[in-house]
Amino acid sequence: MDINTTTIFITVALAHFVALLSPGPDFLLVVKSAVRNKKQVAIGVALGIASANAVYITLCLAGVGAILASSITIMTAIKFAGGIFLTYLAVMALKAKKSDYAFLIKSAEAEDTKESTLPKEFLIGFASGILNPKNPLFYLSLFTLILNNQVGIGFKIALGVWMTLIVFLWDSFIIFALSHKHVRGLFNRGAFYIDKTAGVILGAFGLTLIYSALIKNNK
Questions:
Q1: For 63-78, how does the pLDDT look when each residue is reduced to its tens digit (9 = 90+)?
Q2: Domain ranges of the chain
Q3: Residue of 11, 73, 173, 201 with fewest CB within 10 Å of its CB?
């Protein structure tokens, strides 16, 4: 890579990673899954979120992202669907009883019939990532500011693969950190409250998206 290309790569990579550090619905779902499930199951959420990001990264790099962002109808539909999905997850978290978390305290490795499955966690993660309107808008704005026609397709593919991998590795890091005996023990004891807090925040995200979609639709 020449100096200009290297600068573009570093700029995009740093901006992307800083965005990952900002807690949002995806981060909350990763923590929620890690607290409720074994790491072998929770990793499904990381895979799902990374896959959804890969879809938007691909669309934006291919130029389709601009079309999506310019369509008020499509973006409103994504916002509304995302709001409904996050609100549903919030309601499920808030409905859970304290007794549902007892197995976590008894043993970090305990088997429980209420534990989810990797495919289910993958679908939850994918749905969260694909229905989050901030994802296509973030990637579109990031690539619009940085990339141009002089940037080759090979570089774009490498950048897309890098960002997808970083999303997966970051979420996986959170999951594996919570699988550590001491850290997991602290989280297990507070799992009920963590889940409730995540539920409230997810609900706030969801209702905000629904409100935003309805307001835009009425204008």
A1: 775 666 567 777 777 7
A2: 25-218
A3: 73
